[in-house]
Design goal:
mainly alpha, 77% helix, single chain
């Protein structure tokens, strides 16, 4: 029992061991003060992110990396920090680290996830992995359809790979955000032609195929460029390999037949075409190759049947138009032949104008207004009103008060809408 006036045992112990407990109390108080002070001065996640961005903008990369790394130690999935950290790694030449940072960015929030997938796609494209890059860009668009850079990068890839429906799809997507550039107008005109610079595109496609031998789109495009570059043997070799990997792909067989015809190998072309029958639903290149085969074999009538179908699927294929005209003439259809030869001349004129537009856009500071106007007029004559409207729209962007351009734009737009309505009603 504790008597009144006596100290409790604990207090008695403290009095007897005063030096020890005073030291312990000082340590406890000091620790509490340090913890409180540390919490007071410890930067928040938002402060670290802001500081990292500020240092990045100032070019103080080491300080920026320090801030972002501190933040990522606390929150390994902080999207903005990962995006910046990846960019800093890429700027330092560490592509692998950049890839790893961007891979860690989650899909949500979608606008940041879309940016990360776009950046991943950019690195994959630089590594010549076209198929993987395409998948990354498509994912970026799925997450953030309004991020126009993903559409722009896909357009360039599809243009190199000569993929008309995909080119058109990306052009339409881009046009929802801004007017087309002259380069994009060029792609609009040459959806199914070799519209890109072959001197640059052939080496690029060769890298794509080397990095990914199963990349069929790149292999087919490269073979078509070889064929137009008078390298039919290389085209045939590439297409044989592609056909071996995809024996049921009619498009591959059709292009292989075209390459063999260029070498006057009719038996080989016939064998390839036996695996790509000219039947309803077949792609334009199949009908085209069958038509070219029959003409090379001397059967103008059968060739005309196939080329007519190829022409209706793509009336802007200059070779088809010319060969069909020849077939008509050889069958005694002179007026019809004349119409197709006239179209060939207009297509040639359009090509020359487009080349001039491209050269002037590259070498001159003033826009090639008159040439763009000429292209629009030629497109009207070719009954390509949607494309013509786009060219007149470009003229109006340069000359808003040009009454002639405004009238031509209105007429081409009406005809394009009328044609689309008629097509939709079939």
């Amino acid at each position: 029992m504790i008597k009144t006036g006596e100290n409790p045992p604990v207090l008695h112990w403290l009095q007897r061991h005063r030096p020890a407990w005073l030291g312990l109390l000082i340590v406890i108080l000091a620790g509490s003060a340090w913890i409180g002070w540390h919490r007071f001065i410890r930067p928040t996640d938002a402060q670290l992110l802001t500081a990292g961005i500020r240092f990045t903008d100032r070019g103080q990369k080491e300080q920026a990396i320090e801030k972002f790394d501190q933040l990522l130690q606390r929150n390994p999935h902080e999207s903005m920090a990962l995006l910046y950290r990846g960019q800093l790694a890429r700027d330092a030449g560490d592509v692998q680290a950049a890839t790893e940072f961007w891979k860690r960015v989650p899909d949500e929030p979608a606008h940041l996830g879309g940016t990360a997938r776009f950046l991943e796609g950019t690195l994959l494209l630089e590594a010549n992995r076209a198929r993987a890059a395409e998948a990354a860009f498509l994912k970026a668009i799925e997450l953030n359809p309004k991020y126009v850079k993903s559409h722009e990068r896909l357009l360039k890839l599809y243009a190199a790979q000569l993929r008309p429906p995909d080119i058109k799809h990306e052009l339409d997507a881009i046009h929802q955000f801004r007017p087309w550039t002259l380069d994009e107008l060029y792609e609009l005109v040459y959806l199914t032609e070799l519209s890109t610079n072959k001197a640059k595109t052939i080496p690029l496609l060769e890298k794509f195929v080397k990095a990914d031998p199963d990349d069929l789109n790149s292999a087919l495009a490269l073979a078509r460029y070889y064929l137009r570059d008078d390298r039919a043997g290389e085209a045939a070799g590439l297409l044989r390999r592609a056909a071996g990997q995809n024996p049921k792909d009619a498009t591959t067989q059709a292009y292989l037949a075209e390459a063999l015809l260029a070498q006057w190998d009719l038996p080989g072309a016939s064998e390839a075409l036996s695996r790509a029958p000219a039947e309803p639903g077949a792609p334009q290149c199949v009908w085209k190759s069958h038509g070219l085969f029959w003409i090379a074999s001397g059967d103008w009538k059968q060739g005309a049947v196939c080329l007519e179908k190829a022409f209706h699927l793509n009336p802007n294929d200059m070779l088809v138009c010319f060969k069909f005209g020849l077939a008509m003439r050889n069958m005694g259809e002179a007026p019809a032949a004349k119409r197709y030869f006239r179209r060939v001349e207009r297509l040639k004129d359009l090509r020359l104008v487009m080349i001039e537009i491209a050269e002037r856009a590259e070498n001159e500071t003033s826009p090639p207004v008159e040439k763009v106007f000429d292209a629009g007029r030629l497109l009207v004559k070719l009954d390509r009103n949607q494309e013509a409207a786009a060219f007149f729209e470009q003229v109006l962007a340069w000359r808003p008060d040009d009454a002639t351009a405004r009238d031509q734009f209105a007429q081409a737009s009406r005809r394009s809408q009328s044609s689309a309505a008629n097509d939709g009603g079939r």
